[in-house]
Amino acid sequence: MADYAAILEYVRAFAVIDDVVVVSMVNKTLNLSLQSRLNKKVLIKMLGLDRRMMLMRSLQPSVDQFLQWRWLSRRSK
Fold it and tell me: pTM to 2 decimals?
């Protein structure tokens, strides 16, 4: 995945994200585990602010901790 390093760099740049762990990479899907001091709603808003990542859906609605994002790679203007 060409954007692998860009995604990690982007997520790690947020001071409120304490830890980023690559869980797996299958085909073109990168699975990350994030640790943050923010609550989930605020973290979701923050990750989508500059529109480089777009929230697609919750992967397990009953658990509500796995989210799927699409990497758009460039900032929207």
Answer: 0.74
- Cα angle vertex 35, ends 16, 66, to 5°? 120
* Separation CA 47–CA 45 (nearest Å): 6
CB < 8 Å & 24+ apart, contacts of 50-58: 50/75, 50/76, 51/75, 51/76, 52/10, 53/10
Rounded Cα–Cα distance for residues 68 and 77 (Å): 23
Amino acid 56: pLDDT? 80
CA angle 22, 31, 25 (to 5 degrees): 80
**pLDDT averaged over every residue in the chain:** 81
